[in-house]
Design brief:
7 strands; binds FE2/S2 (inorganic) cluster; Ubiquitin-like (UB roll); 97 residues
Length: 97
């Protein structure tokens, strides 16, 4: 295996912004996937399955499975296809039964 020098310090990240998830403050980099910011903050449970209320969270992370849906401004959106922006008020779809 060829070892290369650690270049992680060269990664330029967008500024941190804050938004809320079920009323709790969460920080994320502006423009990153909302799923990534939520996972990094430890929010794995994003919704409940409608049939049996089992906890569900992101699975495919590319907009195919719908497991990551959350509500923003009254609209249900895929969090993996939604970008973090300052001031978003995100709510989970838990306890919908
Ligand atoms: S994780 Fe599959 S659609 Fe978002």
């Amino acid at each position: 295996m060829r070892l290369t020098p650690d270049q992680s310090g060269l990664i330029r990240r967008a500024a941190m912004v804050s938004f809320t998830f079920d009323g709790a403050p969460v920080a994320g980099h502006a423009g990153e996937s909302l799923t990534v910011a939520l996972l990094r903050a430890g929010h794995l449970h994003l919704r409940d399955a409608p049939e049996d209320t089992a906890p569900r969270g992101a699975f495919c992370c590319m907009g195919l499975c719908q497991e990551c849906v959350v509500r923003i401004n009254g609209q249900v959106v895929e969090s993996c296809r939604t970008l973090v922006a300052s001031g978003l008020a995100v709510t989970s779809l838990k306890d919908r039964a």
